[in-house]
Specification:
By secondary structure, the chain is of the alpha+beta class. The protein is 29% helix and 17% strand. 52% of the residues are buried. It comes from Sphaerisporangium siamense.
């Protein structure tokens, strides 16, 4: 397939892997960007942004990237910690006193970042309109009793992760996490990534499509479906309006656990900014801060009895069988549509792959690209 963009000398393997994705398993539209040493060395895009009209994917095309949002929120949390404004190991209630209710007084922000707080789902069923209003979700979190003794087990915290860490950010800064991200570094660096899509960007939005043969979803009452739909407030995997992930009303809201919209370059820029800075700017996070973030908190069998081969640090997926990375200093997050982004301060990398064809969670497209990047930087 013909694709657009360019790669620096020494990164041709990434272009080959990107082109291969359009043949097997078959992309609709996609993009990949790599920063190395604070400089863009790969920027590729191709295919179709909207299957209904045939509109092509362009350099500035953006797409929902689901839980890649958690990486943005986590960088913000670690930035506040580095500044001395947030103690990740202090009780959340230090910043948010009402959170301590119902047996949550000992839960720390780090427990939430490691998916260990006992709050993967909420008991209260919220309407679609209540979720972007923010306060109803905060009240539901305050009322929630942990499903297990905090710190003793782990389960992916899906949407609760973003709202809980996001409210800690809001209590400290006065800004919701999407607004804080833009103020702290997103605007200054011109990053095409948002949690809460501005209306003026909607013309650049790719439309998600489900691949044929996508595995069926579990029942609505199952833990996993309650986690990913917030008890049915959002449609999943159904993508169409209303309340699906092609719905502008949803994408325009701040849903910080899974609601980011980004280009590959904007999302890769988040990680490049964190580990190296971009085009001469200082890195956002120090090596010591990243070392703390990379310490494994959770792996193996979850509270519900699953083991997907994941390893979690403080807010980030670490190098693991599920998502292999170039080395032990890699950290990132992936999205339910196959999107993936990571940083690595050993190799000085910021990487993002985005796509609008949803094949199935953990599909191989991003893994093939990461393997190509690894081969390029390790020789």
């Amino acid at each position: 397939m013909e694709h657009n963009g360019w790669v620096d000398e020494g990164f041709g393997a990434v272009a080959e892997a990107f082109a291969a994705g359009f043949a097997d398993p078959g992309e609709l539209g996609a993009a990949v960007t790599v920063y190395a040493g604070g400089r863009k060395v790969v920027e590729l895009w191709g295919g179709v942004a909207d299957a209904r009209t045939g509109r092509p994917w362009e350099q500035d095309t953006i797409v929902p990237v689901f839980s890649c949002a958690k990486g943005i929120v986590s960088v913000c949390a670690h930035l506040l910690a580095q500044q001395g404004r947030l103690d990740l190991d202090a009780p959340v209630a230090r910043y948010w006193p009402e959170f301590a209710a119902a047996g949550k007084e000992a839960i720390t922000t780090r427990m939430v970042l490691g998916h260990r707080a006992g709050l993967p789902v909420l008991d209260r069923t919220l309407s679609f309109e209540e979720v972007p209003a923010w306060t109803p979700v905060v009240r539901a979190i305050e009322e929630q009793r942990p499903l297990w003794e905090p710190g003793t087990a782990y389960e992916y915290h899906a949407h609760v992760f973003g709202f809980l860490v996001g409210e800690v950010i809001r209590r400290i800064t006065g800004l919701t996490p999407g607004a804080y991200f833009r103020q702290a570094f997103g605007d200054a660096l011109g990053l095409r990534a948002w949690i809460g899509l501005p209306a003026e960007e909607s013309a650049h939005l790719a439309r998600l499509s489900e691949a044929e043969g996508r595995p069926p979803m579990p029942p609505a009452e199952s833990l996993i479906m309650r986690m990913v739909t917030m008890n049915g407030a959002f449609a999943f995997p159904g993508l169409e309006e209303p309340h699906g992930w092609n719905d502008p009303a949803l994408l325009g809201a701040e849903v910080p656990g899974a609601g980011a919209v980004a280009s590959a370059t904007g999302l890769a820029g988040v990680y490049a900014a964190a580990v190296t800075g971009i085009d001469g700017t200082a890195p956002l996070l120090t090596r010591d801060t990243l070392t703390g973030a990379l310490r494994e908190l959770s792996s193996g069998t979850t509270w519900s009895g699953m083991d997907a081969g994941q390893r979690w640090g403080s807010g980030f997926l670490l190098d693991c069988a599920f998502r292999p990375l170039p080395g032990a200093r890699g950290f990132g997050n992936d999205g339910a549509g196959g999107q993936y982004a990571f940083g690595d301060d050993e190799f000085g990398l910021g990487f993002a792959y985005v796509t609008n064809r949803m094949i199935g969670y953990g599909d191989p497209r991003a893994t093939r690209l990461v393997a190509a990047v690894r081969a390029c930087v390790t020789g």
